[in-house]
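Task card 7
Instruction: Convert sequence to structure tokens.
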Amino acid sequence: MTAYYAAPGAVPSAPARQQTLAPILVAFAGPSPQSRLTVLLRLLMVIPQLIMLGVLGVAVYVITIIGWFGALFTGRLPVFAADFLTGYLRWMARVYAYTLLLTDVYPPFSLADTGYPVRVVAMPGRLNRVAVLFRFFLLIPCWFVTAIVGYGAFTIVGFLTWLIVLISGRMPGALHAALAAALRYQIRTLGFAVMLTSAYPAGLFGDREQPGYGDAQGYGDAQGYGAQPGYGDAQGYVGQLDAGDAGSGGEPSWRLILSSGARKLMVAFIVIGVLLVGVGGGVGVAVGAGATSASLAASASGQVQVDSVPVSSAINSYSADATACHGNLSCVTGLDRRVAAALDTFAGRLRAIPMPAGQASSADATLAGSVSRTASIFARLGAATSASQYLSRADSSNLQQSVNQVNHDYTNLADALNSY
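Output:
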């Protein structure tokens, strides 16, 4: 197995090889009739393939890290890494193409290039060490594009495609080409990520059709794509590869020219993807905000309960403590001042506790206000200098009504916090 492609008589000089930015090439056979039974059971049939890709993905992760260090220090991907990663791309492309109904041929369990309707080839060469070092950052725009296109092409449109092929037994040509372009861009992005190429992912809207395109660079005779020294000869790519548009089934074509209809479908993929990402982001923000509010409410509820313990204890024991004073004014006023201090402390802590916005925040402010008003009543009683003054202030204070209001507002806050 080799990672590379070439054509006889097209081996460039060493400088040319080093300067060539060889993209990952993906060839697709055209749409062909499909078995409705396999279309119906497609997702079940790909499960073994997806399991194998998951297992291989672990090795890909390790080998990519090794390859990254090798490329960073030597300027090129190690041979074993290039061969394995190219094989993995082939396998992945075949499985995804089969899943997306681009072909009805079951993918082989193999890393090697086979006579499958979807083929992948690469030509690793010299790598820019700076680009290798900052690979992650260079990939961010590509990941954004693949996410948008993936949401658009492989979700709602994917289900509609499945219905179309299930009913008609065949995928329309424009839809086939648009899905192939979306898949090819994803494969090229992964190939760039694992350093199989220095060519930045492109071709989302297909390849440009130019005069004399029959032997286009990188297609046809693969001009400028020779065997790389130290990587072995490119096997299995003798003669001229078919550079024409894929027709009805047949051999895979290395060129992907999108018709006007296919380009419109690609635009639709992007629009749908943007809308789905926007909706998903809005739902995510709402869910995240809800989770944050619930967490904040739970924390606030616990804090309120802890801070209210000294106040509850002081008020509940007030009557018994006042009786124990046996009419001693200084004892009673001292008791009033302690209750006032406890209430003031509780009111301050209520205002400092972070509360979720809305009803809980309003209930918290209301409770803090009623606690402060009750504290001021106890403080006024505690400042009395004579028994007659104390009794006069007690009669005009509506103390019991104020304490009842505190209890009522406390219950409202607890209910508000429990509603999140």
